[in-house]
Amino acid sequence: MRLFVVGSVALDSSPGGELRDELGGSALYFSLAASRFHPVALSAPVGPDGEGAVRQLLRRHTAIDDSGLDVVNAPTYRWLVGSAHGRTVDLGSQDSIYDRWQPRLPTGGADWIFIGSMRPDVQLAVARQVAGCQLLAADAMLSYLHGDADVVGELIDLCHWFFCTREELDMLWSGDAEAFRIGRRLRGLVVKDGPDGAVLYTADGVRHQPALAARVVDTTGAGDSFAGGMLGYWLSHHGGPAALPLALAAGAEMAARTISAVGLKALAD
Predict the structure, then answer these.
(1) Which CATH number covers residue 67?
(2) For residue 29, what is the DSSP state?
(3) CA neighbours within 13 Å on the CB side: how many for 34?
(4) pTM of the model
């Protein structure tokens, strides 16, 4: 089975100037983490202002197929990011590139596809086109939930797995996480909780994965790296239930690596 990610390429900045047009985005964080365990192909848009940096990064990673990287005549997605209490804080974005992008999606039903955090209407359009795949997973983004919770709900109904933070789950559901999983007919739900790690909910029960000790430099992309490490490792072991605990640990390892340096630097090393 093949592993695909459809998501964003971003240029991240912070108000204090610690980050200035730092290369990031859900597609890149996921791909770099997943490719340590399994080949991965990405589909993502980038503007002319970011293409050179992305090509230079991916040239060194042969396990990542970047043939789905689309150069769009629009500014690269830009994200203003802060940090508080060990968690990333979204301070706004510029996402007009999604209005001009038509994702190139895989064909065939034996694929695993992860839809990374990006504008929900784009996520939903992708999910509708690949709904027959073997495993479809998606991630939430808190800032978009304020205006697009209904669209995210439609997205979840098409997914087998869903990744979200505790705060995002609280915006989507007023009850407990397992009831949410069952109500949405998900095979699996991963609730990320920053320094407290992550909790996995499946029909086989609940499993807590502690966060691994790491020097916290920049928390941007930790959730995408967790998903990439988890799904990449799990698919490399054929997606069986016995490999799921170690897949969670692989996700935690990739998240810990990510936050130990600015942006993609630790994953790209």
Answers:
(1) 3.40.1190.20
(2) H
(3) 31
(4) 0.93
